Amino acid sequence: xxxxxxxxxxxxxxxxxxxxxxxxxxxxxxxxxxxxxxxxxxxxxxxxxxxxxxxxxxxxxxxxxxxxxxxxxxxxxxxxxxxxxxxxxxxxxxxxxx
Length: 98
Fold this sequence. Notes:
The chain has helices spanning about 40, 45-50, 70-75, 80-95; strands at about 10-15, 20-25, 30-35, 55, 60, 65-70. The chain contains four helices and six strands, in the order E-E-E-H-H-E-E-E-H-H. It has about 100 residues and is α+β, with helices and mostly antiparallel strands.
């Protein structure tokens, strides 16, 4: 029996607040997770966070080499530890509080 694959939800807009990362979806839903789930974004500057590209079901921050898709937020998935470690190292190098 074949399972019909449902495409991931399309992202309409992105919001990063002090403590939350949120995606508004084209189907009317809004999903969010604590910003602490993604240290790369949490430790980034406002300017780095503001430069992103929406590609259907994912968002890419080129300055940070960070890509997050709508399914990850729906699952409540956290950033990989190796990527998070790089974010903390980058923040420390630039003298940002960690």
